[in-house]
């Protein structure tokens, strides 16, 4: 069995030398991944297959990635570790804002969590409107849910109507709506400040803009 493996590797090496050269593969030393194994220096290039070079930059192996995963040879296991590390580094973190509307899901993706949160907060406000028929909004990061919101209508569709029927459209409901409206104005003011700064980091934020937010927050506090 060992002789067969050695013969297979020898054939692979001979085949590589006959079919490939560094120029045809556009291989440059500075673009290769260096590593050492059993006190020998090697380089690996990750193309459609893994290309392994010795310290003299001679191609010694061309290996399919599936073969690397299955191989028990120490050298190939070392190369497989390198491949896995590179793949992890290349994996981009994606933040998906997902909306459930009329039992259908809609998604928009971002590479920045701040942007995802910005849209998520806006959609949470929109979800409070019955006419939009949004029951859920959430953020997932590469498949893991990190923020979620279920609208009041989805939790209890008849909650508000039952309250109105039993108590009438009383002052308590009006006060709650006014309180939420004030907080929404605070959020709008803050988002305008943040957006201005993001668009131009050198732009100046007026003290009046901050004062406006403070006054609105004080108003919200008085409404509690």
Describe this structure in words.
This protein is α+β, with helices and mostly antiparallel strands and 224 residues long. It is 53% helix and 23% strand. It has helices at 2-19, 22-25, 65-70, 74-90, 113-126, 152-155, 159-167, 171-199, 207-223; strands at residues 33-37, 40-46, 50-54, 59-63, 95-101, 104-110, 134-141, 144-150. α8 (171-199) packs antiparallel against α9.
- Based on Cα principal axes, name the global outline: elongated
Work out the strand percent. Answer: 15-25%
**Classification by helices and strands:** alpha+beta
Compute the average pLDDT.
76
pLDDT < 50 stretches: 14-26, 159-170
**Secondary-structure element sequence?**
HHEEEEHHEEHEEHHHH
Largest sheet: 4 strands, antiparallel
Provide the spatial order of strands within the biggest beta sheet: 1-2-3-4
In short:
With 224 residues, the chain is α+β, with helices and mostly antiparallel strands. It has helices spanning 2-19, 22-25, 65-70, 74-90, 113-126, 152-155, 159-167, 171-199, 207-223, and strands at residues 33-37, 40-46, 50-54, 59-63, 95-101, 104-110, 134-141, 144-150.
């Amino acid at each position: 069995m060992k002789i067969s493996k050695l013969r297979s590797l020898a054939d692979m090496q001979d085949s590589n030398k006959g079919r490939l050269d560094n120029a045809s593969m556009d291989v440059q030393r500075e673009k290769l991944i260096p590593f050492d194994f059993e006190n020998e220096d090697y380089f690996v290039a990750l193309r459609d297959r893994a290309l392994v070079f010795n310290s003299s930059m001679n191609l010694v192996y061309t290996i399919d990635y599936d073969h690397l995963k299955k191989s028990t040879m120490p050298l190939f296991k070392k190369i497989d570790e390198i491949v896995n590390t590179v793949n992890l580094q290349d994996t981009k973190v994606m933040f998906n804002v997902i909306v459930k509307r009329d039992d259908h899901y809609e998604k928009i993706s971002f590479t920045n969590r701040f942007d995802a949160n910005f849209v998520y907060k806006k959609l949470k406000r929109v979800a409070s409107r019955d006419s939009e028929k949004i029951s859920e909004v959430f953020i997932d990061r590469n498949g893991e849910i990190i923020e979620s919101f279920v609208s009041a209508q989805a939790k209890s569709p008849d909650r508000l109507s039952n309250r109105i029927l039993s108590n009438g459209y009383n002052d308590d409901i009006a006060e709650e709506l006014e309180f939420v409206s004030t907080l929404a104005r605070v959020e709008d003011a803050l988002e305008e400040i943040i957006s201005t700064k993001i668009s131009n980091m050198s732009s100046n934020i007026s003290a009046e803009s901050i004062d406006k937010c403070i006054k609105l927050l004080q108003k919200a506090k008085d409404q509690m």
